[in-house]
Amino acid sequence: MDNKDSEAEIHPLKQEDGKTPDNHENCTEKEGVCRQPSRLSQLSRWRTAAFFLSLFLCLIVVFAFSFIIPCPVRPVSQRTWNRKYDSAVTYKFLAVEDVNEDTVRDVIFVFKDTNGSSGLNGSCSDEGLSAPCAFVAAVSGTNGSTLWERPVTKDLLWLDCAIEKLEGAQSPGCLVIGNPELLTAIDPRSGKVRWRQFNSFGANYTVMTPLLKLPDVNGDGVQDLMIFTTAGDETKSFIYSGKDGERIGTGGRLSLGASPGYFMQVTKSGSYYVLFYTEDSLYGYSLKDLYSTATGMESQPASLKQDPQWEKKIESPTHHIPLLSPGDVRYLVKIPGRSGGNILVVKSDTVELLHGQTLNSLWTVNASRVLSEPVLGYYTPDVLHIVLESGVGPTRKKIVVVESGSGAVQWELELNSRAGSPRPATLTTADHRSMFLFWGDYQAEANDTGSTVPSQSLYLFHPSYPNALLELSNSTDQIAAFDAALFERSRHACYVLVTGPQSSEGPGWVSVAKRKLKEDVSSSRVIWLSQVAGDSEEYIRQRFFRMRFSSQI
């Protein structure tokens, strides 16, 4: 008895049969405590199952992308290629677009010949045209092979391959203005004709360029087009549907005198205005007025309206806009800004920037005999600059880089100049600045060799090395068109040259060539504008070679 009592004190919960006592009553009192281990156990099992299931799915996805689904093959681009056409002439047109949608941009240009180079789309007679005729052609940016060729007109007057939603298509289209009076819309992806319209502009006319792209004025959901022509002192306006090329209205007449060009500005209120410039005057017309003149309709689309601030600046009834500084107007260029675009007025002796809304003068820079339409670039990070070519002699020019905000000259360089030299080009680099490319012949002093066909070289400049200039290549060929572009997004910087006789000359060899910029940088000649201790020519070439590019900022 004493032993049993002692054992009970040592093992108070142990029953005589060696089993633990039933604790049902305690579980009833503390039900939550007893059930908790069971719930945690089930949750742990679900978590384990979810983890292994997720791991299994991830392995399947990795396996599929690694071994089953093939990665897209990036096209291998040749560093340089050259296409040649014999017994042909060419035009001052060049566009760089991704035609075959392989992520590499391609080249669109125009040549005039009896037959196409490849026979892909027949001859001039197949399109009802007399030979020779103008062919629009697209060649691959990777290797220069022909993607398509299309005979379009007897003689080319104008071509634009950035017409949005032409014929209602999602991708931009090309519009050809030809002589005789023929409008042809082409799909740049295939070269197929979307629509063709014959129109009469009148006798002894000249088509003013560029083509004016309008908002939708006939309510078919596609932007429309306006063409201006001149004959003597008379200017006519015509509106065409972008969907099918049908003329909207009968056309109108403007009292301008002889006008070499025009420019369209959109004000802050969303009003469209067209500025015409003559030898010594500037004229402004609202698109609302131009629509009424060209169509004869009193009611206009709701998108066409007038801006009260602009109407105060335009003198009635002459539509004349007074300018603060005198001089013959040669170019009007839109300069993007934070509060809307401003207007650069290039005159015979000065360059003046006008506020895009008030038309007040912001600054004026002396620049005599500007040789080409200005281009835009970045001399300092994210600050827009204007590149001017100003003539300083019969065979000499000056490259001037001007800050768009203040008109301050940031950099300038004098070069020997050849007649018909192409205008400069720029490429945006990853440091939010630009590479500047321009043609000429660098000499410390003017050097007129008297050669009938002087050589011209392509020069490369970057603001990070203002004392160095790279001479990339030289040529004695007649350059019809030149441009620099990224053939692949943020990489593959190249320049394209179209050389050969132009349409007003006799036939000869026409060449279309693409050259990768880094290939020419490696073999370039470094020209020191001012010597800086410590920098070698090889160091400069390597720095330019390693520069990265940006598709946009």
Topology:
Layout: H1 2-10, H2 24-29, H3 31-68, E1 80-90, E2 95-97, E3 106-113, E4 133-139, E5 146-153, E6 155-163, E7 173-179, E8 182-186, E9 193-198, E10 206-207, E11 212-214, E12 224-231, E13 234-240, E14 247-254, E15 261-266, E16 272-277, E17 282-286, H4 287-295, H5 308-313, E18 329-335, E19 342-347, E20 350-354, E21 361-366, E22 375-380, E23 383-393, E24 396-403, E25 409-416, E26 425-428, E27 434-440, E28 456-461, E29 468-475, E30 479-488, E31 491-499, E32 508-516, H6 517-522, E33 525-528, H7 537-545
Antiparallel strand pairs: 1-3, 1-32, 2-3, 3-4, 4-5, 6-7, 7-8, 8-9, 10-12, 11-12, 12-13, 13-14, 15-16, 16-17, 18-19, 19-20, 20-21, 22-23, 23-24, 24-25, 26-27, 27-28, 28-29, 29-33, 30-31, 31-32
In summary, what is this structure?
With 553 residues, the protein is α+β, with helices and mostly antiparallel strands.
Provide an overview of this structure.
By secondary structure, the chain is α+β, with helices and mostly antiparallel strands. The chain has a domain at 379-386 and 418-553. The protein has seven helices and 33 strands. Strands 1, 2, 3, 4, 5, 30, 31 and 32 form an eight-stranded antiparallel sheet that branches. A hairpin with a 5-residue loop joins strand 26 and strand 27 (434-440). The protein is globular and about 90 Å long. It starts with a helix and ends in an 8-residue tail after the last helix.
